[in-house]
Amino acid sequence: MSALRNNWTREEISAIYNTPVLELIYQAATVHRQYNDPQEVQVCTLLSVKTGGCPEDCSYCPQAARYHTDVKVQKLLPVQEVIDAASKAKEAGSTRFCMGAAWREVRDNRDFDKVLEMVQGVNGMGMEVCCTLGMLTEEQADKLKKAGLYAYNHNLDTSEEHYNEIITTRTYNERLETIDNVRNAKISVCSGGIIGLGESENDRIGMLHTLANMAEHPESVPVNALVPVEGTPLEKQEKVSVWEMVRMIATARILMPKAMVRLSAGRVRMTQEEQALCFMAGANSIFAGDKLLTTPNPEVNADKAMFQVLNLKPRKAFKGEASVKFEQIPL
Ligand code: SF4
């Protein structure tokens, strides 16, 4: 069984990433089978609970207030609306429900209290609850944990070297601090990145190097392909090829064998056969629903048909561990 390591060198990662692609898929598939059931794929739903108007300048993101895109600003959704959406997602087969808010950081205000209520509500439905709300202090992470949060997403986006080309309104270190705060609150860490941002191969290796050398690997690693949106600085970026996605997924799988590797944004532009290659390379999660925050995503029925054709089975929530108990906190 390949051992869990967090002392990978860039050279080792580069050698894995550059392995002839069919051999790389074979190696990743072999590691995948040592730690995971290769037929199981987790279905997650990601809902934007507060959309647009974000003060940050992430150059891929249509929700940044400074770019002129078609995204309509939507203030925080009512709690019940979110609970209803989670319930529908559960009925449709999702076992993880992620709530995203276009905030720079969490503020200790009424909106955060409402998010805590949402977390409690979704937790009570037996789903893995995840949030992505921007930067987070240790105290806020503790509150979310007490409300029953299972996981928190905070992506690195790209390598430290390429980071300033993509975002200037917060630092790479601030990202790492938020991830530390999440880890210290004993919340499961979800962190990955996006390819197709104009980064080099070295940047991709650099990002994987940072993720794979964390003291504990993120439990969840989303691999996104940029979906360029008109009005954003990256609107003219070329589509990444499926082979680049496969290389990223396979390398992530080999470096972080136990992580859930999530085939995330960009799936809408992939054929069933291309997605199958990604599953072969070790991806074991997808996002369901026709929107991924604000960008298009395959329809639920298309995914159901794909699961049938590929004989995939949806992974249950909290596999192999206890669900997160929450303390009823006064809200
Ligand atoms: S990615 Fe998040 S933080 Fe960056 S602009 Fe979009 S909503 Fe804001």
Descriptors:
globular, 331 residues, alpha/beta, single chain, two-stranded antiparallel sheet, 11 helices, binds iron/sulfur cluster, 10-stranded parallel β-sheet
Please tell me what the overall shape is: globular
Distance from N terminus to C terminus (CA atoms, Å) equals 47 Å
Q: What's the helix-strand series?
A: HHEHEHEHEHHEEHEHEHEEEHE
Fraction of residues in helices?
25-40%
Main pleated sheet? 10 strands, parallel
**Which band does the percent of strand residues land in?**
15-25%
Kindly state the number of beta strands.
12
Weakly predicted, low-confidence segments: none
Cα Rg: 18 Å
Q: Which structural class do you get from the secondary structure elements?
A: alpha/beta
- Heteromolecules bound: iron/sulfur cluster
Structure annotation, total helices: 11
Mean pLDDT: 93
Provide a concise account of the structure shown.
This protein is of the alpha/beta class. Helices cover 37% and strands 15% of the residues. The termini are far apart.
What does this structure look like?
The structure is a single chain. With 331 residues, this protein is of the alpha/beta class. Helices cover 37% and strands 15% of the residues. It has helices at residues 10-17, 21-35, 79-91, 110-123, 138-146, 163-166, 172-184, 201-212, 242-255, 272-280, 300-309; strands at residues 40-50, 96-101, 128-132, 151-153, 188-190, 193-195, 220-225, 260-263, 285-288, 291-292, 295-296, 313-314. Helix 1 packs across helix 8, helix 2 packs across helix 9 and helix 5 (138-146) crosses helix 7 (172-184). The longest helix is centred in the first third of the chain and has 15 residues, at 21-35. 49% of the residues are buried. The mean pLDDT is 93. It binds iron/sulfur cluster (SF4). Iron/sulfur cluster (SF4) is lined by residues 54, 56, 58, 61, 63-64, 102, 134.
